[in-house]
Design goal:
Elements: E1 3-7, E2 10-13, H1 15-18, H2 21-26, E3 29-34, E4 49-52, H3 67-76, E5 81-85, H4 92-105, H5 109-119, H6 127-141, E6 146-151, E7 154-159, E8 168-169
Parallel strand pairs: 2-5, 3-4, 3-5
Antiparallel strand pairs: 1-2, 6-7, 7-8
Helix pairs in contact: 3-4, 4-5, 4-6
Length: 173
């Protein structure tokens, strides 16, 4: 699953797919958001808008500094579709799309995660990005739908349930 449509006009991929002219043209991509950490990426010679998010996939990296600007650019892209990519399409780009879904589509973090996970089952934002998403959700909605819990596998994000009987972890363990 190289390219995943997570919302109308919003796609998520890895770097290799973002460099494929067939992928870009078949999905009418007009805006690429590059969260790969690589600045000098040579995209196909198409009429593309580019936004570079210079953040590494490290828990301490300040990806949340880009949540608003990325969400704004995606929502303003009326000429075609948007492709958000990082290197593997597992951590940075899904995090940015979840922030967009919260900001522009009004989804809780839990619902945004479920929506992205349904289309791309192997996402796994790092723990630092989860904390940044949780802080952003609290800023937007004054509440959290996910919490961090200590497990035998380490500290993991857990979707808050109506019942505390079962844990629904937000990662594939």
């Amino acid at each position: 699953m190289a390219v995943s449509q997570v919302s109308p006009g919003v796609f998520l991929s890895d770097l290799d797919s973002a460099l494929n002219v067939g992928v870009l043209t078949s999905r009418n991509i007009t805006l690429i958001i590059n969260a790969s950490g690589l600045q000098d990426v040579s995209y196909p010679q198409l009429d593309l808008q580019l936004l570079h998010v210079p953040v590494q996939d490290q828990p301490h990296a300040p990806l949340s500094h880009y949540f608003e600007s990325v969400a704004e650019r995606i929502s303003q892209n009326q000429t075609g579709a948007t492709l958000v990519h990082c290197t593997a399409g597992r951590s940075r780009s899904p995090t940015l799309i979840m922030a967009y879904l919260m900001r522009c589509e009004g989804l809780s973090l839990r619902r945004a995660h479920e929506q992205v996970l349904d289309q791309r089952p192997f996402i796994r934002p790092n723990a630092g990005f989860w904390l940044q998403l949780m802080e952003y959700e609290r800023t937007l909605f004054s509440r959290n739908s996910v919490r961090m819990v200590r497990t035998s596998c380490g500290v993991l994000p857990e979707a808050l349930q109506d019942s505390e009987d079962t844990a629904a972890y937000c990662v594939n363990i």
